[in-house]
Amino acid sequence: MLLPQIPVEIQHQQVLGCLGATGKQRIDRDLLDQVNEMILLGKSLLQPAAAVAQVRVSPAGDTVYLSGAAFHLPDLSQWLKGCSVASVAAVTVGETIEKEVERLFHRGLATRAVILDAVGTAAAEGAANQVVKLLARQMRIRGLFPTPRLGPGYRGLKMDYLPLFLEMAGGEQIAVTCNNFFQMNPVKSLCFMVGWSSEQQKEQVKCDFCHQANCQFRAVRTEGESGVVF
Amino acid sequence: MSFRERVKKEILVIDGAMGTLLQQRGLPPGWCPEEWNLSRPESVQEVHKLYLEAGADIITTNTFGAIQLKLADYGLGHRVREINLAAANLAKEAARPYGAMVAGSVGPLGKFLQPLGTMTFDEAYGQFFEQCRALVEAGVDFILFETFGDIGEMRAALIAAADAGDVPVVASFTFDETGRTFTGTDPETAAVVVERLGVSAIGVNCSVGPRELVQVVQKLTQSTNLPVLVSPNAGMPEMVEGRTVFRETPAAMADYAVRFVEYGASVLGGCCGTTPEHIKAIHQSVKGLQPRVRSRQFGLRVASRVKTVSIAPRGIPVAIGERLNPTGKKALQAEIKEGKTEITRRDALAQVEAGAAILDINVGVGGVDQVAAMERAIHAVQVLVDAPLCIDSTDPRVIEQALKIYHGKAIINSVNGEEKSLQTILPLAKRYGAALIGLTLDERGIPPTAEERLAVARKLTERAEAMGIPRQDLMIDCLVLTVSAQPEGVPETLRAITLVKKELGLTTSLGVSNVSFGLPNRGLINAAFFAMALAAGLDAAILNPQEPRMMETLRASAVLTGRDIRAEQYIAREQQAGGVQAPAKPVEQAAATPLEILYQAVLSGDKDNIVSYIETALAEGLSPMELLDKALIPGIEEVGRRYGAGLYFLPQLMMAGETMTRSFERLRPELARGPAKKVGTVVLATVKGDIHDIGKNIVSVMLANHGFEVIDLGKNVDNEEIIKAAMEHRAQIIGLSALMTTTMVHMADLINRVKEQGLNCKVMVGGAAVTAQYAREIGADGYAVDAVEAVSVAKSLVS
């Protein structure tokens, strides 16, 4: 399924969170104005799109088969327990926003650049949430609930799997690729999977991909509608 | 009696689930249920009879997925007509002895339309037309579009049904627990959009159980006077031993059915999980009840996919944003020519932010394919903002394309009293369910008097109504002439507004800014005229919402004309504007010394004033070195400390950095004349393969502001290039950044090369995936967790 344009909400608080705001800081009006201005600019630059594929999930012990391809990953098998189907998605907000971030840095407007970069991150996260929500609403009719988001580089799934996941999702349809070092292009893109289970998962997910203790994605997430951004 | 007549006079019961009952009769998993109309007709008819025996007044054909796109999955794509005819005949045959009616069921395509998905309006239309034509040919009593989650798809389906034949149509949506459809449409918006597309009833089915639908049904019945159908699932689905089950009992379903009748619903039934027992219980509880007559007066309502905007004769006046119009805007003209939408999107957002309730879209640029340009603009804007759109074009082809792809109820700007306009524009408004702005001009031009303009408005109303367009969907623009050229025209326009409202009961709009053409300080004239027009009864204005004076005039006039009851919206807005929580920048103490002021300016990131503070300090005899050593550097160091302590966050660090950059720029000439102050030279790069450089850029800013010369090589840089640059610039430090474990291996390689080549250069590393331990393992001279630490590490490496 191709979603060429996704409506994305960018939350002011989320952008501040991406920038490291914790509530301890005193934020003056000038800075708030800049954040609002960058959210507005960011929204105009977004080109949010997604490619989503549905795959059959067949667990067999520590191995899980996704549309026939075997993954010898106990963690993944555990996460997809009870799921007979999963959605693999590639989501992007396009490259215009990262080009504008570069341009702002080159012009010496570093504050705006870092804020706009955070807007891009929040937007990518928002687009992914929107995709999961859209799918979840459809699946709810069938009595199915999403697992937390799972992605290459996270929870037992090596980054090496990224090309395979992108291929499964159909990432090329929205021009989302990755290089030999498994970095996605455009940068503000995500590739992830959600399993669909009859049981609503209560288990909480916490990203520990990097050592940045103040990263907002350290925050606890539940039910697949928020998760990990790379 | 036809469905249209019966549904107004009696409570009707419609059947329940078909698929579940077919499965009980042996339909194998993965088999096409609609194929059984051909191969197992007796089973399909048996299900129909069970529902008829249970008391259903309406049975639905087994054609939910009998559309080419879905049948093709089973290799049956070429048998659409055959399957639909067979299904309808089975249902009719079963219904005849009971005097029951047959609804031709049509389900969604399972694909999203543009811009959410890839399917075009025309493709969707073609799919629905083929199935609807077959059902009409078979003689169903009405077509039931059921379980639709996307309003754009429903629009295509309804337009196709209208073309397929003269048959009543019911539009039934599926809403989830949030009270919205899959793609975000609320019940009122669903009603507003489909009411004008010829539906005989509006419905809600599937998704959730009756309990979860209570609010949806209430909202729906309050939003339309049309009959309402309610067919919930038998509760929320649950998975038991791999099978979906629904647990709501027939008695509970029946209780809810009575409640739904009280709210105003008149067709009651069930969806997934409901059985003949459920339908029997519903029949017993609602038969004999009378449909509740609803006759609420709605003004002009327009809608985007997710929001309805009401323009009512006594409601709060509405601003229609005018800025998405290339007339006189070179940049927007160029963008439209290039096929881009960046300015369009930016202006759309800014106008909504400024208070526009509706956005006017015009792509009138000469030499451009305006159909394609309008399509691009509509697609870009409708996913970006929730404001409904006003399609502004003189070309009917452009208007038609816009109306096809817009997932809401738009306004056409405009129709006028000229015969050609009436004949081309009114049919488009009728077909695509759009509202209209009617200009009071005709073949003779703009009539000079208010009475003559009223006559044109009357003609527009009559012609629209004759076409089946309700009068409340027509908004009259009484047209204003330029006051500098025709001062007598302004009072006539104001009188015409009052007359049109009084005589025809219509809403009015106006393009306000024409009045001031040719005069200086146009904003003042526009605002004054706008206030007068609002006093005369104007309901909507096409204006620039980013002009504060116009929006203030609108809000204040709404209070003064009694349209903003108890000034509620005015007060709310003023409180919002005045109630910003954030503290302003700290104001410098009058008694502070120039050095203290400079220090504070760095702390607060006051880059706009730093240069003037420096000038003052220099004028007072302080040397540039004093400013640097006693105020600016201590200031940025304190910023770093506060960042480290979590008291500042990234943008504050950057604001201080930008302030320092401006300071250096200002002081550079003086500093160049003095002794060299460069702390050291750093070659900075993000390693090969890594395309994330935001962190490296931040480090670059911070190092530069602490007196380092930074040679920033960018991202994805080859080690060879980094070493070459370090040699060329005699760098004391190479700074490397890597986001991921996959790329940080290049750091080790570079350190080895530096050692092999005997370079007198330290290497410091950092980045999200890099740790102090890793830095040690690869032999790095320094490691920093963030930009502030990078500065102190760099300083320690050069000291």
UniProtKB/TrEMBL annotation, chain A:
**UniProt-listed Gene3D superfamilies:** 3.40.109.40
Organism whose genome encodes this protein? Desulforamulus putei DSM 12395
The record's annotation in InterPro entries points to: VitB12-dep_Met_synth_activ_sf
Q: A Gene Ontology MF term for this entry?
A: methionine synthase activity
What name is this protein filed under? Vitamin B12 dependent methionine synthase, activation domain
TrEMBL record, chain B:
Could you state one GO biological process linked to this protein?
tetrahydrofolate metabolic process
Q: Reaction catalysed?
A: (6S)-5-methyl-5,6,7,8-tetrahydrofolate + L-homocysteine = (6S)-5,6,7,8-tetrahydrofolate + L-methionine
Q: Per the record's keyword annotation, is Transport included, yes or no?
A: no
GO molecular function terms noted in the UniProt entry: cobalamin binding; metal ion binding; methionine synthase activity
Cofactor(s), by name: Zn(2+); methylcob(III)alamin
A matching Pfam family: B12-binding_2
Q: Locate the B12-binding N-terminal domain: which residues?
A: 585-679
All residue ranges annotated as the Hcy-binding domain in the record: 1-286
EC category name? transferase
Query: Which E.C. number(s) belong to this protein?
Result: 2.1.1.13
Residues that coordinate or bind Zn(2+) = 206, 271-272
Q: In which pathway does it act?
A: Amino-acid biosynthesis; L-methionine biosynthesis via de novo pathway; L-methionine from L-homocysteine (MetH route): step 1/1
Q: What PROSITE patterns does the annotation carry?
A: B12_BINDING, B12_BINDING_NTER, HCY, PTERIN_BINDING
Task: Please state every residue range assigned to the domain named Pterin-binding.
Answer: 317-561
Gene Ontology annotations for the cellular component aspect, listed alphabetically: cytosol
Domain (B12-binding) spans 679-799
InterPro entries found in the cross-reference section: Cbl-bd_cap, Cobalamin-bd, Cobalamin-bd_sf, Dihydropteroate_synth-like_sf, HCY_dom, HCY_dom_sf, Met_Synthase/Corrinoid, MetH_bac
Which controlled-vocabulary keywords does the entry list? Amino-acid biosynthesis, Cobalamin, Cobalt, Metal-binding, Methionine biosynthesis, Methyltransferase, S-adenosyl-L-methionine, Transferase, Zinc
Fetch the PANTHER family from UniProt.
METHIONINE SYNTHASE
The UniProt function text for this chain reads: Catalyzes the transfer of a methyl group from methyl-cobalamin to homocysteine, yielding enzyme-bound cob(I)alamin and methionine. Subsequently, remethylates the cofactor using methyltetrahydrofolate.
Which family does this protein fall into? Belongs to the vitamin-B12 dependent methionine synthase family. Belongs to the methylamine corrinoid protein family.
Q: What is this protein called?
A: Methionine synthase
Q: To which species is this protein native?
A: Desulforamulus putei DSM 12395
